[in-house]
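Task: sequence design from structure.
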């Protein structure tokens, strides 16, 4: 990827080229498809049901950038799948028949609903981290910050108190970790309890095949539904009727049920098990603000996907030309993301029903639009490969909050 004379933003430094894997894409892809055996916790886990070779090109570029940035620091990118006879099939890494690892619907391949692929991937995240450690990230997450440096400061340092690194969608007093980026060592006690609770939700009523209705489980009593009170024009049921704000909240909560599970475990005091979630959170989680850390483009464009796509598709002005207002807005997005953010999450899934097209869905629909030389999108991609913010993301200061629940994890209350 050539620079096209892109300007280095303030607060950003160029990485040493010797620290990057700058070989052609075909050689990078070979390494991604043929990772070495697991010998350390420095694993970057991704999951795509049909495998890396069948991913959308813009997410393949995301994955290659992770490899180029991190492989020489000892990290291995592993894109697991469920393809028969694939060496990267999840069954080669985890026992898919173990009901303490996966629900029956995963084992049988009967997970249904409109978002079955997303919920399938949800179920592999905690088991992979519990067994092997490292990072689990969505394929739509673009890396911007220095993951190796923050790993060495937190999870990767045995003397550090920080055992989990993630984004938090709430404020310092609200516990809402985003499941598109989890980082921990093996056998993490919070993630172990989270996974037990998630499996219990899937096992309810004789075994579920979707997350529909999980938000009402007594095991999650007290955890607020997501979305708050709002109405979204145009979101309707299959019969054409409007979904009210409560219905939207329930839909969002079922969709992101893994987040609800984590919030409950973080807010649980279980004296029988010796677990104090609020205390563990305050003492052992390095939480990054999710908006600045991973959603700045959406903040600058008010979650307007078509506007973000238009701005990022603009060509930079030629030498001697002045900026238009939109070029100025696009430049600010790129400069702020590259200097302030740790990543950027390209949104897909249910959010398309709630907010309409996103930058990610439009990059998917417009093949190659994220990689046109001389555009702001290409400038952003160039920066995520060759540059890095000067500062590591700050940790939110968490205090010990009042628990939502007192009692055993799997006892209804």
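Answer:
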């Amino acid at each position: 990827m050539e620079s096209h004379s892109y300007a280095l933003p303030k607060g950003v430094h160029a990485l040493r080229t010797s620290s990057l894997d700058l070989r052609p894409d075909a050689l990078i892809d070979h390494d991604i498809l043929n990772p070495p055996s697991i010998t350390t916790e420095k694993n970057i886990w991704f999951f795509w049901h049909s495998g890396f070779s069948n991913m959308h090109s813009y997410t393949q570029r995301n994955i290659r950038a992770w490899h180029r940035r991190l492989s020489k620091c000892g990290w291995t990118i592993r894109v697991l799948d469920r393809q028969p006879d694939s060496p990267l099939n999840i069954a080669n890494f985890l026992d898919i028949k173990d009901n303490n690892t996966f629900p029956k619907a995963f084992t049988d391949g009967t997970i249904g609903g409109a978002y079955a692929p997303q919920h399938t991937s949800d179920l592999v995240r905690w088991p992979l981290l519990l067994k092997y450690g490292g990072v689990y990230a969505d394929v739509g997450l673009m890396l911007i910050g220095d993951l190796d440096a923050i790993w060495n400061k937190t999870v990767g340092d045995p003397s550090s108190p920080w055992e989990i690194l993630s984004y938090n969608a709430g404020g310092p007093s609200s516990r809402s970790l985003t499941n598109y980026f989890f980082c921990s060592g093996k056998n993490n006690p919070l993630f172990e309890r989270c996974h037990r609770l998630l499996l219990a939700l899937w096992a309810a009523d004789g075994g579920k095949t979707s997350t529909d209705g999980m938000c009402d489980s007594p095991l999650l009593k007290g955890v607020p539904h997501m979305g708050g009170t709002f109405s979204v024009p145009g979101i309707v049921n299959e019969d054409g009727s409007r979904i009210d704000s409560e219905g939207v909240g329930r839909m969002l909560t079922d969709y992101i049920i893994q987040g609800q599970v984590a919030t409950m475990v973080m807010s649980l005091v279980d004296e029988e098990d010796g677990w104090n979630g609020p205390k563990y959170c305050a003492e052992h989680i390095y939480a990054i603000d999710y908006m600045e850390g991973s959603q700045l483009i959406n903040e600058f464009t008010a979650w307007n996907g078509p506007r973000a796509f238009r701005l990022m598709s603009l060509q930079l002005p030629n030498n001697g030309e002045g900026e238009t207002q939109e070029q100025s807005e696009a430049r600010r997005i790129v400069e702020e993301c590259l200097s302030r953010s740790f990543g950027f999450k390209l949104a897909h899934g249910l959010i398309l029903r709630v907010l309409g097209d996103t930058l990610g869905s439009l990059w998917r629909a417009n093949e190659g639009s994220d990689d046109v030389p001389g555009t702001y999108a290409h400038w952003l991609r160039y920066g995520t490969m060759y540059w890095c913010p000067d500062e590591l993301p700050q940790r939110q200061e968490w205090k010990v909050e009042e628990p939502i629940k007192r009692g055993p994890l799997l006892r209804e209350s």
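The chain has two domains: 19-295, 296-389.
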